[in-house]
Structures are given as structure tokens and as C-alpha cells.
Amino acid sequence: MAPPLLPRVPSLLRRPRPGSGDFSWERHDFSPGNRLTLYSDGERLYAAMAEAIEDARQTVHLETYIFADDRTGRTFAELLARKARSGARVRLIYDAIGSIDLDPALVTRMRNAGVQILDYHPVAPWRPRWAWNARDHRKILVCDGRVGFAGGMNICDAHLSAEDGGGGWRDVHARVEGPAAYDMDRLFREVWFKETGRWFESAGDPRKRPGAVPVKVAANQELLRRFVIREAYVNALRAARREVSIANSYFMPDWRIRRALARAVRRGVSVRVLVPGRLDSDAVLHAMRAAYGSLLSRGVRLFEWQGPMLHAKAVVVDRLWCAIGSYNLDHRSLRHNLEANLHVIDADFAGRLAELFDLGLAGAREITPSDWRRRPWSVRLLERFCASFDYFF
């Protein structure tokens, strides 16, 4: 049976007048009545996710790029298995490339406990629907269609502090309770239906509104919805009046984002971008830096995080509109990956996210135009060489 029509089909976004600060142009796409909690460390987030799984009565839906075979992954595997044995319907989607190191024995134990598992786009070229480029990069958990989590943290030890045996990665995630959680559940069900042909209804009720925060669950899926998240970014940048703060782990924005950032600076908006000082790939880091000169020359301020790894994907505009999720400002998120963001219009939540950004700047080094011009030619050539392959990163 085919899935029913979406209750809220995203319409084409009306562009705001530059500098007007009028965010009402997008509010019609938002689900009102949500309650949000912000997390910036894996310990607190995983504890909250575990509590939500244990409290679930009907369904648990987890979709993640990385489900690691480490302490965190094994803990969640046991949580999911125990919940499935209790009679709840537990479904797990993990990406075949992101979770390539996952122990098959761990997967078998979850299946034997009753967990339904979808290995998204397995590495199997002989299969008709195999696609190397198309990955599921989302990080969402929804329990009973009522409580959801979304952001940049995978199921792995990397997001735990070094004191707790983790990698100390810096990231943000959010818990959402209300209609937006129902919308997140629909995203999960759409992927499940597309890949398996099996549809099921949500256990949630979008009419229940435990809070007052308007949230839009934005997802870049196939065809008409491929550029939904990018367009929301561009329109928010066009509406900025005072301040734009961006933290992004793989910062290789396309020309429309770069132009919107430059025009915001010309209007007198303070534009600050926090980027990683080190990455899990040196080639990607060099490719990112190839575009820094152009942005610096247009007045965009760049700061390199000096900690272990900046993995956040967040933006705050005028401390009113903000977005967090799995979406990187790079070619892969724009054109290939399944991504999910929470777009929020709320001064309190956006203000707390902006405070985290300001704290991040305390551990960062600003890249000044004069310092950038003095870097060696050998480094510049390496950056240009790596940038020529940015489509494949």
C-alpha cells in the first residue's frame, strides 16, 4: 500500500526583502507547539535518548549514519533489543558506508531480539538499487511519534568527552517534543517505504502541542525537495539584519551561499563562521581552505576550532532563526545525501545556540586576511589541487 499524501507539502519559499528581518515568510511551513532541549555533549544526549527509548510504549525509530561497534553502539544495540523484546516495534536504519565497521554478530543479536533493521544502500554493485553516492547521513531518533532527537551526533564514542573515553568531538543536537517529532517520524517512514515497499502508520498525534516553539523539520530528499535546506539557508541570510553565526564541519558552500554571505556583510551584518582546524581527512580540510581567501576578502570572519574535531552543523541568524541537524555546507549534502535539519524560530532557543557558538570562539583562532595572504605557495597549490576533487568529498 502506498503512503498517504503528506499533510504538509513544503511550498516554494517566498524570498524575504534583504535586510528586512521579516521571518514570517517561512513561518507558514512550521509546526507550532513544540518543546525543545539543546545538547552539546554526547553524555547528556545519549542519556536522554536512552531514557526516551526506555519510556517508549509502541515504536522506536532510529536512523543514523554511523552505528559504531564501540561502547556507545553496543549500549544502544542492547537498548533497542531489550525494547523489542518487551513488545515495542523497533526499527533501525543505518548507512552501509558510515557503519561499515559494524559487527555482523551485533546486528544478528538485534534481529533475533525482534529489531527490524534496514542497511541503507549496502556495498553491493550487483544489486539493482545500489548507489555509492547516495548515503543516509541523518541522525534522528523518534519514540512513539511523540519525542524526537535530531542533530549532528552519530551513535559512537567519538561524541563522548576524552575523560569518558571518547573523542571529544564538538557538536549539537536537540530533543523535540510535539508535532515536529511526528514530522520526523514521517521522514523515517518514507525512507523505510522507499527501500522496503512496506508502509506503516505513526503512533504519534500531530495535534498534541506540549510547548510553544515553531519548528520545521527540513529534509533534502529526491527531486523537488532536494534543495529545501539550502533555500532556507539562503533566505535566512537574505533576511539577516545584525548577526549571522555559522558552525560547520565540512564548509564548502556553493556559490549561492557564498553570495548571500557576501551580500549580508555589505549590508552591515556581522558574519562569523566557525570551521574545524583539523578533520578526519586532510584532503577535505585543504579543499575547504581553498575558498577562505574569497570569503575573507568580502568581510566574512573565519575562526578555526583548535579542539579535537568540530562536527557541528548549525547556523543562527539575528538570534531568532536557527538550524541544527546533519546538513553540511558541501556538495555531498546538497546533491546526494539524505539529511534532516530542525529549523527553529524562537529567540530563547536561538540565543542558547548562539551562546554555545560564542563559547566555541573562545577555543578558536581567527584567520585574518593578512595572515592568510602570507601562507606559503606550496600550501596554496595543495589547496587548489584538493579543491579540484571537492565533488568526491
What is the averaged pLDDT score?
Answer: 88
> What fraction of residues sit in β-strands?
15-25%
Pairing-aware structural class of the strands and helices?
alpha+beta
Rounded to an integer in angstroms, the radius of gyration calculated over CA atoms is: 20 Å
Main sheet overview: 15 strands, mixed
* CATH fold topology of the largest domain: Endonuclease, Chain A
- Judging from the principal axes of the Cα atoms, what is the shape? globular
List the strand order in the largest sheet.
Answer: 4-3-2-5-6-7-1-8-14-13-12-9-10-11-15
The overall strand count is 15
Strand and helix order: HEHEHEHEEEEHEHEHEHHEEEHEHEHH
How many individual domains?
2
Distance between the termini: 37 Å
Uncertain stretches: 1-14
Could you explain the architecture of this structure?
The structure is a single chain. With 393 residues, the protein is of the alpha+beta class. It folds into two domains: 32-213, Endonuclease Chain A (Endonuclease, Chain A), CATH 3.30.870.10; 218-392, Endonuclease Chain A (Endonuclease, Chain A), CATH 3.30.870. It is built from 13 helices and 15 strands. The chain has helices at residues 24-27, 42-55, 71-85, 104-113, 179-196, 228-239, 255-266, 282-289, 292-297, 331-335, 347-362, 369-373, 377-387; strands at residues 31-39, 59-64, 89-95, 116-120, 139-143, 147-151, 173-177, 213-220, 243-248, 270-276, 301-305, 313-317, 321-325, 339-345, 364-367. A 15-stranded mixed β-sheet has the order 4-3-2-5-6-7-1-8-14-13-12-9-10-11-15, sandwiched between helices. Strand 9 (243-248), helix 7 and strand 10 (270-276) form a beta-alpha-beta unit. Helix 2 (42-55) runs parallel beside helix 3 (71-85). The radius of gyration is 20 Å and the shape is globular. Mean pLDDT is 88; it is low at 1-14.
